[in-house]
From TrEMBL:
GO annotation, biological process: DNA biosynthetic process
InterPro entries: DNA/RNA_pol_sf, Peptidase_aspartic_dom_sf, Retrotrans_Pao
Annotated protein name in UniProt: Peptidase aspartic putative domain-containing protein
Species of the source: Acyrthosiphon pisum (Pea aphid)
Annotated SUPFAM superfamilies: DNA/RNA polymerases (SSF56672)
Length: 506
């Protein structure tokens, strides 16, 4: 049930909303399966319309014909005619053949409104038409009960002023990014990506490092890199199993080869070391490259690279949006920093985050489906997808389409997880990757952008450090202890603020 604003308002007036009669229906897709869709019932239209995104999800085929639609204000647009399909009720056996015409959108984002019907006696609900209030009427149809009429907005007195201050989540002052205020270096990195990035024969991204200085200024770096390499070798020699794991994946994937002899051309040798992360369910040992290692000149590779702008939304925005979904879906890109081809290596450098995340934004820019386009642009944080929808079918559409888009770009998604058991049952396992799908039971949890998500209870959990190890009895020590609890969206602020108040009183 949706409401459409019917009049302009000032700070003191109460706007009137016209209730749009809507119903959940089933529509057969191209394979003959029924999928849930929300239908707007409008007595004034002469044709049946469907959004392009919904038609694509259902894989409905075009008949080849198209017509011109004239709307309010004599605005015209073309609508393609689709082959007939079947619309059916979710309550009984009612079904009817139907032919749709596609439009980019049918309505704007409309607010929902709760209607209290608990005051209506149960025996009255058996009638075909019931007056809920003076302006609202419930009508029984073959597609279920629908509500029509007008309704006043109880929050209208402050909503107009609030709307001008906070138009949407992405406009929150706490996390807004002023693109026009990009620093000069960030603009250079963006222009460099646009002019030099390309796709290879299998559609993988190829990027170039955005240099802001001549690499010859670095000087000799082989001596430093060899010293660091021998230190790594000595550490690995004491743990043969660690040594095998450290090299095996790079050899198997073709990401490592014997370095050529030093030549006359400028070369920067990038040192690396092992980081062990025992709690990881996929990569227990990670190879970390050090782009800050100084060459003989005292400069490092990162010193001559443009960092690049931040192109993805903040964690604050993403988590706020994530909490609005009834069905949630999480995944991450497998080995993301190694899935983007580069001249030469990119990961471990200042520009690595920009180059890889910018590739995802580029996929969003090239996308035509509005739902997938928005998800690629707004629901990724580096390599982590944290998104959702209102129904299992909509989430499954995200799973299929996002997986396909990123797989084609060489960035396969894995560690799929959801709070919906029916949805997870539709996601298959992968014989080549045991972590492709994560099935959780009872109180199992999964990491979500630094927080712990328990899908079965739909709750976020926090890791509270309760270490008994002594810390320095100083303001700095107390501040460090307070900040051990990671709380990106401020849910624990009422409790953590006490520590900050104590700190101010010292």
């Amino acid at each position: 049930m949706y409401a459409q604003r019917g009049s302009a308002t000032s700070h003191s007036s109460v706007p009137t909303y016209a209730m749009w009669s809507t119903s959940i229906v089933y529509i057969k897709d191209a394979s003959g399966e029924r999928q849930r869709c929300r239908a707007v019932l409008d007595n004034g239209v002469q044709l049946n319309f469907i959004t392009q995104a919904c038609a694509k999800r259902l894989q409905l085929k075009s008949s080849g014909a198209s017509i011109t639609i004239a709307g309010v204000g004599a605005n015209h647009m073309n609508a393609k005619c689709l082959l007939p399909t079947t619309l059916s009720s979710q309550f009984d056996q009612y079904a009817t053949p139907i032919t749709f015409h596609t439009l980019p959108v049918i309505s704007s984002q409309l607010p929902s409104h709760q209607i209290k019907i608990n005051h209506i006696p149960s025996h009255v609900l058996s009638q075909d038409r019931v007056a809920i209030s003076e302006s609202l009427t419930a009508q029984s149809t073959r597609l279920g009960w629908v509500i029509t009429g007008k309704i006043n907005d109880p929050l209208s007195h402050s909503m107009t002023a609030l709307t001008s201050t906070v138009s949407n989540q992405s406009g929150l002052a706490l996390c807004a990014t002023n693109v026009s205020a990009r620093q000069h270096e960030e603009c250079i990195a963006e222009e460099h990506f646009i002019s030099t990035s390309q796709r290879d024969d299998i559609e993988w991204f190829i990027v170039r490092l955005p240099l802001k200085a001549n690499p010859e200024t670095l000087g000799e770096s082989r001596t430093m890199a060899m010293k660091r390499f021998f230190n790594v070798e000595r550490r690995l020699a004491s743990d043969p199993s660690l040594s095998i794991v450290y090299k095996k994946e790079y050899i198997d994937l073709g990401h490592m080869r014997i370095a050529p002899a030093a030549g006359s051309s400028p070369t920067y040798y990038l040192p690396h070391h092992a980081v062990v992360k025992t709690e990881s369910i996929t990569t227990k040992i990670r190879v970390v490259f050090d782009g800050f290692a100084p060459a003989k000149s005292g400069l490092s590779l990162n010193d001559i690279l443009c960092r690049g702008p931040k192109v993805q939304a903040d964690i604050f925005e993403i988590l706020l949006s994530f909490r609005t979904h009834a069905i949630v879906l999480t995944a991450d890109v497998a080995k993301m920093y190694r899935q983007v081809l580069v001249h030469p290596i990119t990961y471990g450098t200042t520009s690595a985050s920009f180059l890889t995340t910018r590739c995802i934004i580029q996929l969003a820019n090239e996308e035509t489906d509005p739902t997938i386009k928005r998800t690629l642009a707004e629901d990724f944080y580096v390599d982590v997808l944290i998104s959702g929808a209102n129904t299992d079918d909509e989430c499954y559409f995200l799973y299929k389409e996002l997986g396909s888009r990123l797989q084609s770009a060489g960035c396969p998604l894995r560690k799929w997880c959801s709070n919906s058991a029916p949805l997870m049952s539709r996601i298959p396992t992968a014989s080549t990757d045991p972590t492709y799908r994560i099935m959780l039971v009872d109180e199992d949890t999964v990491s979500a952008l630094g927080l712990t998500l328990q899908p079965n209870s739909n709750t976020f959990h926090f890791t509270i450090s309760n270490s008994e190890a002594p810390f320095h009895s100083t303001k700095r020590g107390l501040l460090s202890h307070i900040n051990l609890t990671y709380d990106p969206i401020g849910l624990l602020t009422p409790a953590l603020i006490k520590g900050n108040i104590l700190l101010q009183q010292l």
